[in-house]
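Shipment paperwork, digital attachment
Item: protein structure file
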Amino acid sequence: MIAAWFAVHLPDGVLTTSWWLGGWVVTAGLLGLSSWRVQAEDIPRLALVSAACFVASSIHIPLWTTSVHLVLNCLAVLLAGWRAPLAIFPALLLQALLLNHGGLLTLGVNTTIYTLPALAVWLLAYPAVRRFPGLVSVRWAWLTGLVLGGLTTLVTVALNAVVLYLGGIEKWSALVVLVFAAHVPVVFVEACMTALLLTYLCRVKPDLLALPCPRTASGE
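Attachment content:
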């Protein structure tokens, strides 16, 4: 069971009741806000992002005697914007049901861990890109993606460790450190992947990005 804790999906039975219930409260709020005035044309994009998150988190990278996996919550928020919770929640639910990856009781906490850092980074990036559209130009998109992807994943991994430390049914200080350290390589991989994908989208399909001034993003 300890191997399951090395993923950014906390399984059932590791958190106290108040913590996983609190996770559901936060997730309910996130889903409610992101569902406000959702349009039919938003559904295909959300489904695509959800599928990408499902596949990415299903790819495990061997590490010592356990494994870690990709997160891609930064890419999810770059494509879905503030509606990202509607894409992330179904992906995590299907993983819990089909792959036994994460738990149903902790689904709320896991959704919160995935979405809050991504939304926070997006809320910081959105006004920055509005003021400096060149940040998502072909010339600079790689650097923007590198920073956003790395920062989002780092905060996600840190939040996962904090939740496990503060909300665990036992005090697993050493395990928390190991879980965080195991995901440091993932931070770099996610940063590089986000940089590549953001650069590609800025070049071929900037309108897919949930960022301001997408039509000027393809310029140099």
